[in-house]
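Whiteboard transcription, Tuesday session. T.W. wrote the structure tokens on the left side:
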């Protein structure tokens, strides 16, 4: 069931989204060669704590997961696509890092992700990240009343495929509100004009995931959480929580 949010609820989701944006910005600023993923998680925890927000990631245990998620961010490095568990791994020169973070504030949830490089970037990684950001922007642009979920999926898929990248099968965005994962699903590839119609008050997380090698195959790492590319190529992941409004799409997790 798709729950439509009141304008008051969307304001509350914006406040949660701002906490997520600040946590991601702080973690990104802290990320550098030699810094561990656990240290980045600690930075994000500090931002959530200071805001009085809780983490919808911490302790999260969907059916596929062997253990509850132990952190407030997902940290996915290089061939990790999403759901990376922060470890003591220390970032190396040229690493491609994707950070995903959620926050719950006043009963409402925000969810967002960024990808970036540390140290000296590989040009192909910058292109991958730039394409992911372009796919997200294209998707937000068509997240308007009167369109359908398929229009969003098509916008993402078109940008990714035109650049020659893979799209991991079976993963994508989602409705969001009081809970992190609500209806409807928001696939990263699809047919325009199909799927659930977009209405004022819908809130969705749009999250393109791109595989640099061009194939769509992935596997779950032995930790039971981390999704990795099968060909070992690098991946990028970006995400915003977006409200569909009569006045146009509003990015609730925008970073200042
Ligand atoms: Mg997320
Ligand atoms: Mg999400």
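and on the right, the sequence the group agreed on:
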């Amino acid at each position: 069931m798709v729950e439509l949010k009141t304008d008051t609820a969307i304001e509350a989701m914006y406040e949660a989204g701002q906490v997520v944006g600040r946590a991601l910005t702080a973690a990104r600023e802290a990320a550098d060669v030699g810094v561990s993923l656990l240290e980045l998680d600690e930075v994000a925890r500090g931002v959530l704590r200071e805001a009085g927000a809780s983490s919808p990631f911490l302790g999260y245990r969907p059916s596929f997961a062997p253990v509850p998620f132990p952190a407030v961010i997902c940290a996915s490095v290089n061939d990790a696509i999403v759901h990376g568990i922060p470890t003591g791994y220390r970032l190396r020169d040229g690493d491609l890092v994707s950070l995903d973070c959620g926050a719950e504030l006043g009963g409402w949830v925000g969810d967002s992700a960024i990808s970036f490089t540390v140290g000296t970037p590989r040009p192909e990684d910058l292109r991958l990240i730039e394409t992911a950001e372009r796919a997200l922007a294209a998707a937000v642009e068509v997240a308007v009343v009167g369109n359908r979920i398929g229009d969003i999926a098509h916008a993402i898929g078109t940008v990714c495929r035109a650049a020659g990248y893979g799209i991991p099968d079976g993963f994508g965005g989602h409705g969001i509100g009081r809970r992190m994962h609500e209806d409807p699903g928001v696939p990263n590839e699809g047919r325009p004009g199909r799927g659930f119609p977009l209405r004022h008050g819908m809130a969705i997380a749009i999250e393109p995931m791109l595989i640099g090698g061009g194939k769509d195959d992935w596997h779950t790492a032995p930790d039971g959480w981390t999704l990795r590319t099968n060909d070992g190529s690098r991946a990028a992941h970006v995400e915003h929580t977006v409200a569909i409004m009569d006045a146009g799409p509003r990015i609730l997790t925008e970073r200042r």
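Someone added at the bottom: The two ends are 33 Å apart (CA to CA).
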